[in-house]
Amino acid sequence: MRVVIVGGGISGLVLAQGLRARGTEVTLLEAGAEPGGNIQTHRRDGFVTEAGPNSFLDREPTLRALAARLGIEDRIRTADPSAKRRYLYSGGKLRALPQSPPALIKSDLLPWTAKLRMLGEPLTRRGPTGDESLADFGRRHVGNAATEVLVDAMQTGIYAGDMEALSVAAVFPKIAQLEKRHRSLLLGMVRERKAERAAPTPAGTPATTGAVASFDGGLGVLVKALAGALGPALRLQARAVGLRRETAGWRVAVEERGQHTELEADRVVLAVPAFTAAELVRPLDTALATQLDGIAYAPIAVVHLGFAPGAVPPQDGFGFLVPAVEKRRVLGVIHVSSTFPWRTEGGRVLYTCLIGGARRPDLVELDEAALVTLAREELRLMAGVTAEPILTEAVRWKRGIPQYNLGHLGRLAAIDEGVTRLPGLFLTGNAYRGVGLTDCVREATGLVDTLAR
Ligand SMILES: Cc1cc2nc3c(=O)[nH]c(=O)nc-3n(C[C@H](O)[C@H](O)[C@H](O)COP(=O)(O)OP(=O)(O)OC[C@H]3O[C@@H](n4cnc5c(N)ncnc54)[C@H](O)[C@@H]3O)c2cc1C
């Protein structure tokens, strides 16, 4: 069986490597000059910067198991233990995010009225049978004030989205399921934690830490290992520009370093953003293309500000998130040097500021110099960082993070159905069932099994 995979981000790389390891003939086409998609690690002047994702959550064994297969498990580095401390910018200042319900009750993060409302969570009624926005779900369970501060911060850190538009069942399926099973989230968590503790871990499952993690040289280590395992099966600067169905399989038209070629395949997998998949399938199935086009993306800008040793006060914790209600211009800030100390040399200090999202898409239109100025102003006002940076870098992702808005699950059903009209064509990637790296790896690994069968 010959498989052509389009898109060499983490999804396409994992799929290609998995199939190749099972003896399938694979070609992975990547339009860019480097593999990795959103993952772009750079080393410069004593700093390791990440233009896209910074870390993964080492909670389910998927990514660790992949690293073990690639022989790089020993290169995984979990975040410094101090990164368990996280902050919220709320009520005009940075406040520690309480780590447990009793700590939340004691903290000054929310007014007493909001805390009392939260204590009523076990009395929450079941929600509507149809789709519900994350904001409405939050308000039903914990009230308006806690939703504006806590729920919004939680989604901002993952989706950079608009909680009034996001579908709770699509963005936080486990939480939505918890309500289905137990009605109250609090009661559900208590009951399920007890059951989890009692259940044995299946033999051979790699031990996870539950912590935020990366690799000793940043996430690029994973990309390099995957690309290395693929060898010439990975073709860079090779853009798929057309798909044609043949009687027994597929033909993929490719623009490769100025040359036009065609590849024959028994199976084609599109591991590209949904809007690119839409362009490729449009001549074959306009209804499917319309569904794919309906998946919105939030733009996001990433600004790195690096400081000389001792120029700024030491960082504490993972960083801070900023709920929309604060009306500030940053979504959140990662304290890179305290969380991942191996990413800055000799006491240098690195802040990574996230800007834009569904909240302020206009800011991602700013040029790089203006983004750096904005990030510096916000960091000065919110965290008192006034020194002159020795490193500045701004990266704009015009269509950065897929938004699983209301109707997403219905759209997925229509997409799944549409794909069955094109036998031999498959879709994977962050547009569908999870935007995190772990989600992408899990989905692609599952597809290896489906295709290899
Ligand atoms: C700023 C930012 C921060 C993030 N932070 C985190 C984080 O800390 N932790 C986390 O878990 N997740 C994070 N994410 C999400 C995560 O990075 C992505 O969901 C994931 O990397 C997506 O991988 P993918 O392979 O599905 O898609 P992509 O990475 O988008 O890869 C798609 C690839 O397809 C290629 N391509 C497109 N068109 C064609 C074509 N016609 N022919 C050939 N190739 C083509 C593209 O060049 C690209 O390389 C972040 C995302 C962003 C943007």
TrEMBL record:
Domain Amine oxidase: 10-444
Cofactor: FAD
Taxonomic superkingdom: Bacteria
Short name of one Pfam family: Amino_oxidase
Pathway where it operates: Porphyrin-containing compound metabolism
Entry keyword Oxidoreductase: yes
Transmembrane segments: none
InterPro entries xrefs: Amino_oxidase (IPR002937), FAD/NAD-bd_sf (IPR036188), Protoporphyrinogen_oxidase (IPR004572), Zeta_carotene_desat/Oxidored (IPR050464)
Keyword terms of this UniProt record: FAD, Flavoprotein, Heme biosynthesis, Oxidoreductase
Single Gene Ontology MF annotation: oxygen-dependent protoporphyrinogen oxidase activity
Any one GO BP annotation for this protein: heme biosynthetic process
NCBIfam families named in the record: proto_IX_ox
Protein name from the UniProt record: Protoporphyrinogen oxidase
Taxonomic source organism: Cystobacter ferrugineus
